[in-house]
Amino acid sequence: MKGSFEPIKPAKRTENIEYAVRDIVLVAEEARKKGKELLFLNIGDPIQYDFRTPAPLVEATYQAMCENLTGYSASEGVDEAICAIRQEARKSGIEPADIFVTTGASEAIDFTLTALVNEGENVLVPYPGYPLYTAILAKLGAEPNPYYLDEENAWQPDLADIESKINEKTRAIVIINPNNPTGAVYSEETLRGIIEIAKKHRLVILSDEIYDKLVFDGKKHISIAALDPEVPMVTFNGLSKCYLAPGFRIGWGIVSGPWEIVKDFVEAIHKLARARLSTSHPKQYAIPVALNGNQNHLQEVLEKLERRRDLTVEMLNDIPGISCVKPEGAFYAFPRIDIPGVSDRDFVKELIAETGVVVVHGSGFGQKPGTAHFRVVFLPPEDVLERAYERIKKFMKGYLARKGLTA
Q1: Do residues 136 and 109 lie in contact, with contact meaning Cβ atoms separated by under 8 Å?
Q2: How many Å apart are CA 353 and CA 29, to the nearest integer?
Q3: CA distances from 287 to 95, 102, 104 (A)
Q4: HSE on the CB side for 202, CA within 13 Å?
Q5: How many domains does one find in the chain?
Q6: How far, in Å, are 105, 224, 229, 266, 304 from residue 232 at the CA level?
Q7: Sign of CA dihedral 219, 225, 229, 231
Q8: According to the model, what pLDDT value does residue 193 have?
Q9: Residue 165: how many CB atoms within 10 A of its CB?
């Protein structure tokens, strides 16, 4: 006689895992079923819009497959890829102690946090910031320790707030530079301030620099690891954003700092890499082609993004009840909803249901209590952005009227 199963209870570690960028798609699908034309401003995937992966990256992967480089690779990555990453790091002023290639920068972040943080410990994470960090920490039974970015100071990290949040169980500081979701690019002064805090409290710095070449208005990105070789750091990067190859799922981590300080940590990361065997073997051969090849695609990408950034800021700031700090990098903006007591989650749900414009609620990225925001992706062509922002403007007029406020 067959036994009967009871419903399977999921592990408690999954209870606090959310990913707002994908979760909001469920709301969008409901709007689609009701006949709304959807305009997607929620996913940071250039390939979903009018961008293409540079042909040399595709050709390098195809060539590797033709040469039968389709078995497992070395767990930390192929020599050609690691050599190219090391050269690129040194151009930025970083002297790597170790490099490991991963299935997207996401896996590098996962390996690093898993190798570093014990249950009950905490990591300083930026609010607003990319929600992957809090999701991984939830999985590990560790705590995200939020620090705030200062909207009044171009979304730079609030150094005083960072220091005030540190306690005896704090292990690391995460920075995202350029920032997702605000588009902020951190100044050298800010970065040196973070270094001083890390030195004082003996914290590891984890720097997510996946958008490092997408910086606007002629400004330059500064890698924090280039500013001090004595502080243990891990710098994350990959092919997904600047090289328009998100589906390749190829990323890496660069560990820097004195070897005697980081060597056990590095070995822990390598244990995790060995346990999963390897990342995709043939696609790793796109890394040296990307990093060492011409960067011609970036000029067109930056020209498009700067135009779309300017349009975004101009049109959003023209909407009563919305204000938007000008992004300096990446391809996101994080406009504020200037309505007292508004729920950003409810606002976004109503916006999607009424207009079909798909954005992500700000609380999915973290924000200061008492504020409300939403994130837009300005990757779509200008005509799509214009239609989306016109719909938001029309929606906002009605929304304010329903709240008894005047536009």
Answers
A1: yes
A2: 10
A3: 19, 12, 12
A4: 5
A5: 2
A6: 19, 11, 8, 11, 36
A7: positive
A8: 98
A9: 17
Terminal-residue alpha carbon distance, the chain: 69
Could you tell me if 279 and 305 are in contact, meaning their C-beta atoms sit under 8 angstroms apart?
A: no
Query: Residue 392: in which H helix or E strand, if any?
Result: helix 382-402
Same-domain status, 91 and 20? no
Which runs of E-coded beta strand occur in 247-398? 250-256, 322-323, 332-333, 336-337, 357-358, 360-361, 374-377
The reply to whether 280 and 205 lie within a common domain is yes
312 with 233, same domain?
Answer: no
Spans of the chain below 70 pLDDT: 1-3, 19-22, 406-407
Q: Report the C-alpha gap between 349 and 353 in whole angstroms.
A: 6
Query: 28 is in which domain, residue-wise?
Result: 12-51+297-402
Cα angle 118-109-153, degrees, rounded to a multiple of 5: 100
The DSSP bridge partners found for residue 332 are 377
Over residues 177-217, the pLDDT tens digits come to 999 999 999 999 999 999 999 999 999 999 999 999 999 99
